[in-house]
Amino acid sequence: MKLIVAGATGYVAGEVIRQAVWMPEITTIVALARRPVELDRPESSKIESVIIKDYGEYLDQVKKALAGSDACIWAVAVTPTKSKLMDVADVKRVCHDYTIAGLQAMYEAGPAKPFRFLYMSGYMSQRDPSKKPFLLGDYAVMRGNVENHVMAFAKNHDGIEACVAKPGLMARAGSAYNFILKSTGVVPIASVEEVSRAILKQVVSGFEKEVLENSDFARLGA
């Protein structure tokens, strides 16, 4: 399997790559990012670091690297916390425009069939604007709108399968932060290791459902 990991230098994507190199089913990992992915591990020979200056524009050499891929884990986004410090248009461009541009570019590059696209969203996203939450409501609806567009793209393009992962807060398993968050019970939480294992199993074996939530990560990532 040839797997694209978009946003490869990020927190979740880094753990996904760390686990993916040990999976015999995955033979090539296209690490798509704005800067090189560190290749200083002996098992990293299956990683192909692909630099992209702008996630909204895909040059021919980038599309060539994406061609023939079996799946993508898309982890390019702005977190809720960072979104409060950025212009609304910039947040939408990163979360929405880049995602759709990336999916279109992968389709144009000629992926395998089926091609599984897993979009990393968040637990607070809301697809129904009438149910906009009080806190970060516009952000939540915007992320839900991205999910709608991803699912519509898959429906309208032959061979494309899509899934949305909606984790809550994430921390390293066994860390004090993980323990504190779980003990409060205020927001859903799963370890980044569980989430990564779960989504990797899904892109390798096939999506069992359209939306994956924390209960799914605990079950699939055990």
Describe this structure in words.
The chain is α/β, with parallel strands linked by helices. The chain has one domain: Rossmann fold (3-Layer(aba) Sandwich). 42% of the residues lie in helices and 18% in strands. The protein contains eight helices and nine strands. The protein has helices spanning 11-20, 60-66, 80-83, 88-109, 137-156, 176-184, 192-205, 214-220, and strands spanning 2-6, 28-33, 47-51, 71-74, 115-120, 160-165, 169-171, 189-191, 211-212. Strands 3-2-1-4-5-6-9 form a seven-stranded parallel sheet, with helices on both faces. Helix 1 (11-20) crosses helix 7, helix 4 runs parallel beside helix 5 (137-156) and helix 7 (192-205) packs across helix 8 (214-220). The longest helix has 22 residues, at 88-109. It is globular, with a radius of gyration of 17 Å. The model is unreliable at 176-180 (pLDDT under 50).
